[in-house]
Design brief:
The chain is 54% helix and 11% strand. A five-stranded antiparallel beta sheet has the order 2-1-5-4-3, sandwiched between helices. It is α+β, with helices and mostly antiparallel strands and 360 residues long. Strand 3 (105-112) and strand 4 form a beta hairpin. It has helices at residues 6-21, 30-42, 61-67, 71-74, 88-100, 144-188, 196-212, 216-227, 237-240, 248-254, 257-266, 272-279, 301-315, 327-336, 344-355, and strands at residues 46-51, 56-59, 105-112, 117-127, 133-142.
Length: 360
């Protein structure tokens, strides 16, 4: 909530100066006092004056209306008697605060649920030129309409943000669906790789959720696993489907697919972290992989998870140059590659899930 405008505070301080010091430092003349009282009575904000003995000596018409009081009933009474007994201890603290500090002033927001109104009370200590405490002034402003306007603006802003967020999610979902469709079309070109990314996704997500539950890691693994081979769209068909051993140039060409995949995914700013995972899914734990020869924890966690799932599915799927490996043999290869090709801790997780029948 915004504070009382500085202009109002300046006005309060000027009234205080007039009350205790007069115009230009001279005593207030009788006519000036009458004028001041008339001005206070005409103010649209409530003003209550309390003397040095904490007795109410003035309450203008706006104060009567905003506080639901009658000046004649409270005039001359100790301010504590004008408050419910349960709140008097707090009032005493406030009076002590005003009395004990030079230039003391504070604000308090009050909600009147019965009348559905909100007030902002500003309390200011009054002192003479020597610093002696003379009393206090309470200025009450009805801020109900201001608060309602602020609440309406906030509601409108939140609704707008919600609609923008929904539009953003729908856009991102549509783009993701398009990318996954591209991978599906890509894999459909080759009967040997059809469904590979979906199977890697299922394996990798089970591993991630086994370790981290539904979390940021598992969400990143889910997206990256579906897109990890999208870079193969830039690899020549003749290389992808070659039945024999690849030549050095062909091997170099096919090893470009993580970089191509990174460029495709990184074109969408909200997939920056996924792009990095795609780039590094062929790194090896011992640092001999590609494209950057990263090792150990230098490799993104999601990339290390996908590497295990990717290798297992590749081994258990038929290729032009070999038949599918038995699951047990593929699992044994994962075990043998722990610490060299694979993160040993993640290889152990895979084997636990494999031998327990959770995956594979």
């Amino acid at each position: 909530m915004r504070e009382t405008p500085d202009l109002l505070i300046a006005g309060i301080e000027r009234v205080r100066d007039i009350m205790v010091g007069g115009w230009g430092g001279t005593a207030v003349a009788c006519c000036d006092t009458a004028l001041l009282e008339a001005a206070l009575a005409a103010l649209p904000i409530g003003v209550i004056l309390v003397d040095g003995q904490d007795r109410i000596v003035l309450a203008n018409r706006a104060a009567e209306e905003t506080r639901g009081i009658r000046a004649g009933e409270i005039m001359g009474k100790h301010v504590l008697l004008c408050h419910p007994e349960k709140s008097r201890e707090k009032v005493q603290r406030a009076l002590a605060f005003l009395r004990g500090r030079e230039g003391a002033a504070f604000r308090r927001m009050v909600v009147d649920t019965r009348r559905d109104r909100r007030w902002e009370n500003t309390y200011v200590a009054l002192r003479d030129e020597s610093g002696n405490h003379l009393g206090a002034m309470v200025v009450t402003a009805d801020i109900t309409e201001r608060v309602r306007a602020e609440e309406e603006r906030l509601t409108y802003t939140l609704r707008l943000e919600e609609k923008l967020e929904q539009a953003r999610r729908e856009f991102e979902d549509a783009v993701m669906a398009s990318l996954v469709s591209l991978v599906t079309v890509l894999e459909a070109r080759d009967p040997y790789t059809k469904g590979h990314s979906l199977r890697v996704y299922e394996l990798a997500v089970k591993m991630a959720e086994h370790l981290y539950g539904v979390s940021r890691v598992s969400k990143e693994v889910a997206v990256a696993a579906q897109l990890h081979d999208i870079g193969k769209v830039g690899i020549r068909d003749v290389v992808l489907s070659k039945p024999g051993k690849l030549a050095d140039e062909e091997m170099s060409h096919i090893r470009e697919h993580p970089l191509i995949g990174e460029r495709i995914v990184a074109s969408l700013p909200y997939l920056d972290s996924v792009a990095r995972i795609v780039r590094h899914h062929h790194e090896r734990f011992d640092g001999t992989g590609y494209p950057d020869r990263l090792g150990g924890d230098q490799i993104p966690l999601a990339s290390r998870i996908i590497a295990v799932a990717d290798a297992y599915d590749a081994m258990t799927s038929s290729r032009p140059y070999r038949g599918a490996m038995e699951p047990e043999r593929a699992a044994a290869n994962i075990s043998e590659g722990a610490g060299s090709q694979f993160d040993p801790a993640l290889a152990e997780v895979f084997l636990e899930l494999f031998y327990s029948g959770t995956l594979g």
